[in-house]
């Protein structure tokens, strides 16, 4: 059963959805894009699909988005540093020491920044049409975490070239195109999206 919960991080009340199975050996945290919330993961049954392959799944609404209150500590900024601190603090609050982190667009930029700022937290990462690559390129070569880079074939929001650049910067990365999909590729073609992430997670 998917649960709706809240947790306080400083002065911020954070809403999140979760599906927890005691026997699941791993955890995944799902982020969302700038025009989306954790609700979108419900539409493609992400909680159930990831639970079936052995993950406890958490999906927070970023502060100021969806049902989470805005807070100055985590105010979203172009360098994503407040956002990586949010992931660190959220993981600590839910008592998860290490996890797979997945995010599209803005959420993808948060994933990359968290890999840079808190590498010990992340066992593997998945980004979809990630934002912010150009702002972090000088640091990304230092990442030593398995990374799957997904991009919609018809993404007209963030150019595909950002994905190929990211692939060239991160040593343990792979780049895959999702056919017929736009920027929100996971919503446009969920069957290929799941096939790619399941393959990636299995071969880590």
What is the topological layout?
Blueprint: E1 3-9, E2 12-19, E3 26-30, H1 40-43, H2 46-52, E4 55-60, H3 81-93, E5 99-104, H4 106-117, E6 122-128, H5 133-140, E7 147-152, H6 160-169, E8 173-178, H7 185-188, H8 190-203
Parallel strand pairs: 3-4, 3-5, 5-6, 6-7, 7-8
Antiparallel strand pairs: 1-2, 2-4
Helix pairs in contact: 3-4, 4-5, 5-6
Tell me what you see in this structure.
This protein is α/β, with parallel strands linked by helices and 204 residues long. The protein has a single domain, classed as Alpha/Beta hydrolase fold, catalytic domain (Rossmann fold), CATH 3.40.50.1820. The chain is 35% helix and 25% strand. The protein has eight helices and eight strands, in the order βββααβαβαβαβαβαα. Strands 1-2-4-3-5-6-7-8 form an eight-stranded mixed sheet, sandwiched between helices. α3 packs across α4 and α4 runs parallel beside α5. The longest helix is centred in the C-terminal third of the chain and has 14 residues. It is globular and about 40 Å long. The two termini are 28 Å apart.
Fill in the keyword field for this structure.
25% strand; 35% helix; 204 residues; alpha/beta; 8-stranded mixed beta sheet; Rossmann fold
Task: Give a quick summary of the entry.
This protein has helices at 40-43, 46-52, 81-93, 106-117, 133-140, 160-169, 185-188, 190-203, and strands spanning 3-9, 12-19, 26-30, 55-60, 99-104, 122-128, 147-152, 173-178. The protein is an alpha/beta fold and 204 residues long. The mean pLDDT is 96.
């Amino acid at each position: 059963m998917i649960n709706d919960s809240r947790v306080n991080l400083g002065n911020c009340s954070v809403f999140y959805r979760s599906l927890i199975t005691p026997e699941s050996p791993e955890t995944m945290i799902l982020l969302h894009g700038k025009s989306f919330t954790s609700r979108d993961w419900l539409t493609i049954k992400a909680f159930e699909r990831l639970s079936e392959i052995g993950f406890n799944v958490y999906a927070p609404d970023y502060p100021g988005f969806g049902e989470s209150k805005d807070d100055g500590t985590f105010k979203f900024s172009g360098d994503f540093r407040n956002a990586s601190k949010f992931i660190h603090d959220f993981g600590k609050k839910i008592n998860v020491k290490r996890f797979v982190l997945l995010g599209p667009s803005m959420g993808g930029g948060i994933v990359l920044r968290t890999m840079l700022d808190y590498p010990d937290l992340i066992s593997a990462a998945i980004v979809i049409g990630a934002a912010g690559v150009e702002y972090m390129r000088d640091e990304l070569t230092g990442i030593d975490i398995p990374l799957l880079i997904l991009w919609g074939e018809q993404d007209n929001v963030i150019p595909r070239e950002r994905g190929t650049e990211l692939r060239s910067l991160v040593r343990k990365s792979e780049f895959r195109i999702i056919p017929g999909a736009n920027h929100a590729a996971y919503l446009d073609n969920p069957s290929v999206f799941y096939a790619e992430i399941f393959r990636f997670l299995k071969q880590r």
